[in-house]
């Protein structure tokens, strides 16, 4: 029992370190015990049996499809929030025009985030820190501060027939990529600093060809997009933001017209909406970017907007609680 006399009460710093290690190791252990399955989900929208567009989630292997909304409204154009527990989407549930809502997956409750009944909102995205939205309204891009409700117009230097839409935030939160319709007919990809400045043009494809459907790689080095510049229907491309070089990525089924949805959080797979130009059928697919393996998840209507969940959902403890727990430990 003499060795027990040598023990000292651990310092506050040691307790904090031990607690943080515990918080990190428990999810990792749960992940290992689950067989290494990452636990990601994919959310998308399609027309239900009632004739309205609804939100659905599904595993990346095509199993466990679940319908998340059931009301008589059109729910479209969605984004998975970074806390894993909220899905943001456009809906007509507040009236005739689309507004951006948040769905609490656990509780099934909704919140109107924009409350702008006289403005027709379209594509949008949420910042990596979850504090801001960028959205398109009236052909211009706005940033909405979710805590204060303040809005800021970021579109500038637009011609009389130009319009900006389909914004996507870069993983580091510093830039926003988007599609600009030049003269209303020439659809090109631009990127801009999220805090201001002029937009920089990334693609240069003469009309009537068009680019659309942007998704960043998780490391922020590449932008994946769709373009019909080669064959009259949409192919998958990747653009290196450092070299500005573009590369067409072949899809195993050459008859598919590809509309990019999202890149997996681990960067190894991409989910997209694919229209089979031969069979005239629209479906959601996941493709491995290294092997080219292609698998179909579900048959859908158009404009399904598939998006990946940002973090494993089976690991129990959400990262959103880390700052709060850290603050509690520091006050000890």
Annotation keywords:
4-stranded antiparallel beta sheet; 9% helix; 2 helices; disordered N terminus; 2 domains; single chain; 332 residues; globular; Neuraminidase; mainly beta; disordered C terminus
Summarize the structure in short.
The protein is mainly beta. The chain has 2 domains: 10-37 and 317-332, no CATH class; 38-313, Neuraminidase (6 Propeller), CATH 2.120.10.30. It is built from 2 helices and 24 strands.
What does the model show?
The chain is mainly β. It has two domains: 10-37 and 317-332, no CATH class; 38-313, TolB, C-terminal domain (Neuraminidase). 9% of the residues lie in helices and 42% in strands. The protein has helices at residues 12-33, 322-330, and strands at 42-47, 53-58, 66-67, 75-80, 86-91, 99-104, 110-112, 121-126, 132-137, 140-145, 151-153, 163-169, 175-182, 186-193, 196-201, 211-216, 222-227, 235-240, 246-249, 256-263, 269-276, 281-288, 294-299, 307-308. Strands 3-2-1-24 form a four-stranded antiparallel sheet, with no helix packed on it. A four-stranded antiparallel sheet has the order 4-5-6-7, with no helix packed on it. Strands 8-9-10-11 form a four-stranded antiparallel sheet, with no helix packed on it. The two termini are 30 Å apart.
């Amino acid at each position: 029992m003499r060795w027990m006399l040598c023990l000292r009460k651990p310092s506050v710093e040691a307790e904090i370190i031990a607690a943080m290690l515990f918080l990190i190791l428990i999810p990792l252990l749960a992940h290992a015990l689950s067989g290494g399955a990452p636990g990601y989900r994919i959310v998308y929208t399609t027309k239900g049996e009632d004739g309205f567009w609804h939100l659905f989630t599904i595993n990346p292997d095509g199993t466990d499809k679940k319908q998340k909304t059931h009301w008589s409204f059109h729910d479209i154009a969605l984004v998975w929030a970074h806390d894993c527990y909220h899905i943001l989407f456009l809906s007509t549930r507040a009236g005739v025009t689309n507004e951006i809502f948040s769905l609490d997956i656990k509780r099934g409750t909704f919140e109107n985030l924009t409350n702008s009944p006289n403005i027709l909102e379209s594509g949008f995205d949420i910042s990596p820190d979850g504090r801001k939205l960028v959205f398109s309204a009236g052909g211009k891009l706005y940033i909405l501060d979710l805590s204060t409700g303040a809005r800021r117009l970021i579109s500038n230097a637009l011609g009389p027939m130009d319009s900006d839409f389909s914004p996507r935030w870069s993983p580091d939160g510093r830039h926003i990529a988007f599609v600009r319709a030049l003269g209303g007919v020439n659809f090109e990809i631009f990127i801009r600093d999220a805090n201001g400045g002029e937009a920089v043009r990334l693609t240069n494809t003469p009309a009537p060809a068009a680019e659309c459907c942007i998704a960043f790689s998780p490391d922020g080095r590449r932008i994946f997009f769709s373009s019909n510049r080669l064959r009259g229907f949409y192919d998958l491309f990747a653009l290196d933001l450092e070299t500005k070089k573009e590369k067409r990525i072949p899809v195993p089924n050459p008859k598919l017209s590809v509309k990019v949805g999202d890149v997996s959080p681990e960067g190894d797979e991409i989910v997209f909406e694919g229209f089979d130009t031969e069979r005239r059928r629209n479906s959601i697919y996941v493709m491995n970017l290294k092997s080219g393996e292609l698998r179909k998840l579900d048959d859908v209507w158009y404009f399904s907007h598939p998006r990946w969940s940002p973090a494993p959902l089976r690991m129990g403890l959400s990262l959103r609680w880390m700052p709060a727990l850290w603050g509690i430990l520091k006050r000890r």
